[in-house]
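Subject: Predicted fold for FAM86 N-terminal domain-containing protein, 340 residues

User T.R. writes:
Posting the sequence so we have a shared reference for the thread.
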Amino acid sequence: MAPEERADAARLLWGFERRFLAARALRSFPWQSLEEKLRDSSGSELLLDILQKTVKHPLCVKHPPSVKYSRSFLSELIRKHEAVHTEPSDELYQALAEVLTAEEPTHCHRSYLLPSGDSVTLCESTAIVSHGTTGLVTWNAALYLAEWAVENPAVFTHRTALELGSGAGLTGLAICKTCRPRAYVFSDCHSRVLEQLRGNVLLNGFSLEPSIDAWAQHPGPHTPEAERPRVAVAQLDWDTVTAPQLAAFQPDVILAADVLYGPETVLSLVGVLRKLSTCRKDQRAPDAYVAFTIRNPETCQLFTTELGRAGIPWEEVPRHNQKLFPYEEHSEMAILKLTL
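User M.O. replies:
I've generated the structure tokens; pasting them so everyone works from the same file.
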């Protein structure tokens, strides 16, 4: 195989690998490129390589996606094979047989590969809206903010970050694994989200502070040499939390992703940002970054209007290339940097 052909095959494998690990919609896979490669090949080695990078990937074996998803993916892979090759692939049929006999759990896993070679694996609900909350799955703006953070690690290195509405935890876990923060506080208000969030933190190899009260009372010395950040999960209700409670976390950076769902959440978010603006650390207010998908322009307009009323200046962060993570669909997203 010529060097150019090897490079094309490697790109194709990478495309399948990252999409499958993240359980992206099958229509987003590079099926056409695969068909072209299969027509030019007399064997099925490429399909077997794809099998090893997807269903048989060590991450998927340990933390599998939903059974339905794996079944649909393998069925499509077999169809592509049969459309070109007359000889059946025992390996593909064996993999499908294993999936057909498996039971569908209530939770599945998604994994996201990081530039360092590490990965973030999340346990998520198989339902988009489960137990009355959208926080049990990862949304596009969380990927977008995580990608920006990985490209701008200095914003977080040796600093304490507080994330509002952490959801499944993708953004924070990516930051903890790549940006060397001193400490990271995940937060949400829904008990089911917090339960799953704690599980995801542990799943990715981090230890949790025994209690948020102990964290607030004993934030610990500044140790830049520490390999792992201190990590805590806090239950925060934006409407009832007080400024002193927020100040106890001593945040240097505030983060939020995909939390602008409607007028009520916008007003609550601006309210908690106003409280955070009083949290001075070394006479300096924390930096704040809010990422969101522009679903409803009126909601985004309300957010910036309310920021103005609260006296919180903002500017849009320059857009970055969305190359690291596979997104569910192409949608417009933005990150605002707020001056608290």
